[in-house]
Amino acid sequence: MTAGTSARRSAAADVDSDDGRDETFDERMDRNWNEMLQELRVTQTGTQILTGFLLAIAFQSRFGELDRFQHGIYLGLVLAAVVTTILGLAPVNLHRTLFRQHAKDLVVSVAHVLLQLTLAGVSVVLIGTVLLIFDVVVDRRSAVIAATATGVVLAAIALLPLVLRRVGGGRRRTRGLAHVGQEENRAER
What we know:
Elements: H1 3-14, H2 25-57, H3 68-98, H4 104-137, H5 140-168, H6 178-188
Helix pairs in contact: 2-3, 2-4, 3-4, 4-5
């Protein structure tokens, strides 16, 4: 059994015939790939801009005034931003490499993992950037507080889909999120 066959079988198990979509497995993979491309476009743009910002800091006149801690944070951020950018570009490379090899299901599965890693990397870079900027502009205590608050907000956003699934009781394709509150009100009556 090849990796592509194994991925196709596991992806085929993911196809939900009761979700209201009338699409073949290949159509679903094409749709999933296109949706991921949209997510990657947004993520790549933001990551590349942030990476450029971080790279430019080293050439500013005040860079020499940074203390050892700030230099460490800065270098860690540059590495995190570069790795995150690479992770965000990897699905495109994967697609190019496996193009026309009937491996779309494998590309979609691997790209899904790479996109999740990219989002985790973006979170690290955002938290670190807040830490560095607050440390330089205000003080270390304020930097830790601001970075922690940023981390809490990012964690809440990351957990939001789990909360929505639990509150929504699974899939509600035709009703949407606004309907969840209405059903709870009916249940209370």
